[in-house]
Amino acid sequence: MATPRTDPVTLEVVELIGTVVARYYEEYERAAAAHSLTGAQARVLGLLSMEPMPMRKVANKLRCEPSNITGIVDRLEARGLVERRPDPSDRRVKLAAPTKEGIGTARQLREALGFAREPLAELSDAERTVLRDLLRRMLGANAALERSQP
């Protein structure tokens, strides 16, 4: 096993990554609360506003248990923001899909986010590409595998 790196630059990079993640979640929680949603509900609604999908796929994308997503979708459905409907390609599968009101709420959430919506706004295209490539390299083979999952 490799010896952990504890040089000042490594420690600062780890701290900065943690700060970026914390800031993203704090802003997302504030925007969600303004719509009487939890951060998790807002993230599910935002994901579904891009495309209806089975709850198992939502769980995979958000890296959580499908049973958690079922509860979140239940609460969003009770608020009239999401509905369940049969998948046109396989009627045995149920898709979670945003309602018209859910699409509007998801749009308002995105508009309320500054840093979380565009945390890389200050970086050029070239800088974003370098950062992406470095993050992929940090994650190793898992990053390529996870990008290819449905």
UniProtKB/TrEMBL annotation:
SMART domains, alphabetized: HTH_MARR
Keyword Cytoplasm in record: no
Domain HTH marR-type: 10-140
Pfam families: MarR
UniProt-listed InterPro entries: HTH_MarR-typ, MarR/SlyA-like, Tscrpt_reg_MarR-type_CS, WH-like_DNA-bd_sf, WH_DNA-bd_sf
GO molecular function: DNA binding; DNA-binding transcription factor activity
One GO BP annotation of this record: response to stress
Keywords associated with the record: DNA-binding, Transcription, Transcription regulation
Coiled-coil annotated residue ranges, if any: none
Entry keyword DNA-binding: yes
Name the record gives this protein: MarR family transcriptional regulator
